[in-house]
Amino acid sequence: MKIKNGAEYMKSLRRLKPKIYYKGNRIEDVTRHPATAPHVRAAAMTYALAGKPEYRDLATATSHLTGRTISRFTHVHQNIEDLIKKIKLLRVLGQKTGTCFQRCVGFDGINAVYSVAYEIDQKYGTDYLKRFTSWLIEIQDENRMVVGAMTDPKGDRSKGPAQQPDPDQYLHVVERRSDGVVIRGAKLHMTGAVNSHDILVMPTTALDENSTDYAIVCAVPIDAPGITMIFGRQAGDDRRDKQEWIDSGKPRFGIVGGEAVIAFEDVFVPNERIFMNGETDFTGMLVYRFAAHHRANYGACKTGLMDVLTGAVSYLAQIQGAAKGSHIRDKVTEMIHLSETLYSSSVACSAEGVPTPSGAYMVDTMLANVCKQNVTRFHFEVARLATDIAGGFIATMPSQYDLKSEDVGHLVKKYFMGVSEIPVEDRIKIGRLIEAMTGGTAMVESMHGAGSPQAQRIMIFREGKLAEKIKLAKALAGIPQRKKAKKDS
Ligand code: SF4
Ligand code: FE
Q1: What is the Å distance from ligand 2's center to 403 Cα?
Q2: Does the annotation count 259 as an active-site position?
Q3: Among 446, 338, 351, residue whose Cα is nearest residue 88
Q4: Any atom of ligand 1 within 6 Å of the Cβ of 203
Q5: Burial class of 242 by CB neighbour count within 10 A (0 to 12, 13 to 18, 19+)
Q6: Beta partners for 268?
Q7: What is the pLDDT of residue 489?
Q8: Which domains can be identified in the chain, with CATH numbers?
Q9: 3-state DSSP call for residue 62?
Q10: Contacts 24+ apart (CB under 8 A), 8-11
Q11: In 478-489, which positions are buried (b, 16+ CB within 10 angstroms) versus exposed (e)?
């Protein structure tokens, strides 16, 4: 692996020249700009962990392509053990950063594209897998970070890609040349985009045969000509941007992953970086495999965050002298119970994984949908319980400037005291951490990341094998399976 640790990762980013805007201004160096640096540090943890003996087994893998040791984030899952190690790794990273460390999007994209490229080749005699693996070996050997770019803007939601008044609402091919294609469009909500090395472009939805220009999968360097990124705002970002170390709550790693719009204004992609080109019949499979992998992750990375939150409120209760209260212990118990239940579904969908025809392993899709659906509830319930335990204090604390003020600092220290041996600053810091982890943007991600709740409900119903369940019920009730019973089910 060329990039061996967090410092080398940051150095490698400084060598790139992506076009990134934030609040109307260009960001020249994402590793040092106060808006992006915390997110870079969170992603850097994925590199750092690989160098620590106690995590090496989780954070690295052996490439099935080269036999060399690689970051797990660039690995194609070869068995159930790989799927489970990934889940364990994500929980640890969630615990260590308390935020989204971004690198799993590209990881899941790599796994989805690998297995689908194999199946397209089988059907059409193309050579997508060969192209993809030669790109992937570069990614593995250099240990580059990939942003998986799937979500299109979608414009008028009542119309499909080919019917949009503005065809660029879905990323598409605008020119075909003998040596490659030119693409135009955008990808939204791109976690970790500004601090990735490469973009893996994928379609956003299943497409019909009228949308061949939209069925494009390809890899593009982050600073390719024609690419512009706009970094998004987050609740509380002013505190982060002003580097208010106490008030920002989680100063080292940021509030949540750090998302950007990636605009592709006529970007040329050479043939060797194209891994699907018009095979619309495989788009649904690709989108679903990617989504299922990512939904499985959420039960692990978000459990890591819930562990931190549980620790934060427990500590706050301790330093306020309330930890022994039976109602506090009961609420903390419920937080732990919900976290472990969520994690169970993440482990379960991995343990029930199956090989695809390519040999790459897939999680169980039903259980992965259930896992992400649980995130949209349990993380919110855990945040509600944390807010309940923490009290109104987390919404009304004076700022760090008042804490340090010569005029009023003594009042803050006097009236925000908990147990006498703990400094007030510690109580405020842990309060700010809870505020940051239960507020706006952090929670929206748990609702909509890896697909909004409705997306999982559609798949849960579709894969729910209702006909089989009806059969079970009829058998037990002594109702014969009549021919026309098929209609009933
Ligand atoms: Fe990884 Fe979780 Fe962030 Fe998705 S939300 S990129 S799974 S840390
Ligand atoms: Fe996410």
Answers
A1: 34
A2: yes
A3: 351
A4: no
A5: exposed
A6: 182
A7: 42
A8: 286-471 (1.20.140.10)
A9: strand
A10: 8/47, 9/43, 9/44, 9/47, 9/143, 9/145, 10/40, 10/44
A11: eeeeeeeeeeee
Q: Which residues contact 221 (CB under 8 A, 6 or more apart)?
A: 16, 197, 198, 199
- The model's pLDDT over 78-115, given as tens digits with 9 standing for 90+, comes to 999 999 999 999 999 999 999 999 999 999 999 999 99
449 CB under 6 A from ligand 1? yes
pLDDT tens, position by position, 139-172: 999 999 999 999 999 999 999 999 999 999 999 9
Q: Cα–Cα distance between 182 and 265 in angstroms, integer?
A: 9
The rounded Å distance from CA 300 to ligand 1 centre is: 9
Q: Report the nearest-CA residue for atom 5 of ligand 1.
A: 100
Which residues are CB-neighbours of 194 under 8 A, at least 6 positions away? 18, 20, 27, 30, 36, 39, 229, 231, 258, 260
- Band of pLDDT at residue 484, cut at 50, 70 and 90: low
Which H or E run contains 300? helix 283-319
Catalytic residue among 104, 218, 349, 371: 104
Q: Is the CB of 102 under 6 A from ligand 1?
A: yes
Distance, CA of 233 to CA of 230 (rounded, Å): 10
For tokens 């089910």, what's the residue?
A: 489
Please name the amino acid found at residue 279.
E
Structure tokens at 328: 């506090």
Per residue in 68-85, pLDDT (tens digit) is 999 999 999 999 999 999
Closest Cα to atom 6 of ligand 1: 102
Amino acid at 39: H
* Bridge partner residues of 471 (DSSP): none
Which protein residue's CA is at the shortest distance from atom 7 of ligand 1?
297
444 SS3 class: helix
- Say how far apart CA 457 and CA 373 lie, in whole Å: 8
Sequence-distant (6+) residues with CB within 8 A of 295 are 349, 368, 369, 371, 372, 450, 451, 456
Sign of CA dihedral 96, 100, 103, 105: positive
SS3 439: coil
Q: Give first-to-last CA distance, the chain, whole Å.
A: 54
Sheet of strand 227-231: strand arrangement: 25-27, 19-22, 227-231, 259-270, 180-191, 172-177
DSSP one-letter code for 183: E
26: β partners: 21
In this structure, the number of other CB atoms found within 10 A of the CB of residue 64 comes to: 15
